[in-house]
Amino acid sequence: MTAQTRQTDAPAPAETAILVEDLHKSFGTLEVLKGVSLSARKGDVVAIIGGSGSGKSTLLRCINFLETPTSGRIVVAGEEIAMRADGSPANRRQIERIRTRLGMVFQAFNLWTHRTLLENVIEVPVYVLKTPRAEAISRARVLLDRVGLADKADTFPAFLSGGQQQRAAIARALAVDPSVMLFDEPTSALDPELVGEVLTVIRDLAAEGRTMLLVTHEMKFAREVANHVVYLFEGQIEEQGPPDQLFGAPKSARLKQFLQTVG
Amino acid sequence: MESLLDTLGLSQSVQLLSLSPPGWGGNLLRGLANSLQIALGAFGFGLLIGLFGAYGKLYGGPILRDLLAIYTTVIRAVPELVLILILYYVGSDLINQAALAMGYGRVEISGVVAGIWVLGIVQGAYSTEVLRGAIQAIPPGQLEAARAFGMPPLMTLRRVTIPAMMSFATPGLANLWLIATKDTALLAIVGFSELTLETRQAAGSTRAYFTFFLAAGALYLIVTLFSGALFARIEKWARRGQPSLKGGTK
């Protein structure tokens, strides 16, 4: 499913949705990512797992430059993100355009609290992508209905449960019709009884062929929805492969130990 | 009605406060209008300075941050009366020198413009701090979400930062507005005919000090009461997405 492209100078194949090559990221003297390469084709669901501090969230946040990588190469839907020598994006407009193609879902939902769910969902289409308002609203209603929140369209996020907020955040990410969805531990901030409703929505998206990068602690879920799993250890890919192989017959001793601890 | 005022000994005061001459009520109201005009202008100008100042202090380079620190420290350290004297005379002097250098004659500086300029600079220093605190109180995830969805910086300011900080900024800004309305009284010292100077003139001409200063006090009080109601509404609107601290929903 996932091919490692090693030739740096060859253009990324058109069907490659995300290509990350030799990504390094340091916070001061602490090197969090030590040369990570991974790629996802259109329709892939890549789960990124690893212990806390393994760099999995940082990897995800580097892809849309919420964190500035120290070095490396990132290609989104065939377009390489231009980087300066220090890793910062060279072209603000390019990175802003690419970000609208990457629907991000955060651990802490990060809905805009001063706007209703409907306003949250139409915000980016209307103001960033300049979609006509009426069109954005009718699309937003479909999306809210899809995540089971049609009746909450005019409610402010603070009056909803964490699970409802996260489902709304997924609807917000879907509203830009992203080429790739980035999930940063989408269920880690939720009460256990609310995890299921969010996973159901993500499972549906996987089933309809959405390309997704999913940082998660839900091992059972990762095994079920992903077609490729990446295990990060101390900023490097320790092992990767199809879920059955990774969870069923892990080769690395660290991964074995990790899977035992998280159960 | 008239007999009632007579028995209370207030008929003379009513005459003095009548809106048409020989009453001085009209002058007082003109003074109030001038005061409000300046307060509004200074508050708005101060907000503008405050927004730039807060952004500069939070995201600016080291030189800009140092300059802004000097600005807010000096302005907040010096008594406002002194600042008004300095800014007013220095300001008009500089403008006149510039006008002379460019070959124009002396320029007559409008009291309203000078008042707005002077009080605006004072208000800006306080606004900078109020808005800086409010911006910092925004949960960082709100701004990160805007960034993650490709919102350009100015749009983020307009669509996310300003609305999200409003609930944190309103109480401080309400204070600043009330201070602005009363600081206009200090402009009396540079001879600008706002409410306090008009009151002093009316009182001095008629010797009815008590009547006029009480009337002026009442006018300031009315302004404060109206402002309070207005800011309560603004705050309610700004907090629209937040559950009430008293419990219950919406």
Structure at a glance:
The complex is a heterodimer of chains A (263) and B (250). Chain A has 263 residues and is α/β, with parallel strands linked by helices.
Short key terms for the protein model shown above:
heterodimer; A: 263 residues; alpha/beta; Rossmann fold; 2 domains; 24% strand; globular; B: 250 residues; mainly alpha; MetI-like fold; 78% helix
Walk me through this protein's architecture:
The complex is a heterodimer of chains A (263) and B (250). Chain A has helices at 56-63, 92-99, 117-128, 133-146, 162-174, 192-207, 219-225, 243-248, 253-262, and strands spanning 16-27, 30-41, 45-50, 71-76, 79-80, 102-105, 180-184, 212-215, 228-233, 236-241. By secondary structure, chain A is of the alpha/beta class. Chain A folds into 2 domains: 1-101 and 178-263, P-loop containing nucleotide triphosphate hydrolases (Rossmann fold, 3-Layer(aba) Sandwich); 113-177, no CATH class. A 6-stranded mixed sheet of chain A has the order 6-7-8-3-9-10, with helices on both faces. A 4-stranded antiparallel sheet of chain A has the order 2-1-4-5, covered by helices on one side. In chain A, α3 packs parallel to α5 (162-174), α4 (133-146) packs across α5 (162-174) and α5 runs parallel beside α6. The radius of gyration of chain A is 18 Å and the shape is globular. The two termini of chain A are 27 Å apart. In chain B, α7 runs antiparallel to α8 (153-183). With 250 residues, chain B is mainly alpha-helical. The model of chain B has no long low-confidence stretch (mean pLDDT 85). The A-B interface holds A 64, 66, 92, 95-100, 102, 104, 106, 108-116, 123-124, 127-128, 156-159, 172, 176 and B 139, 141-142, 144-152, 155, 159-160, 163-164, 166-167, 238, 240-243, 249-250.
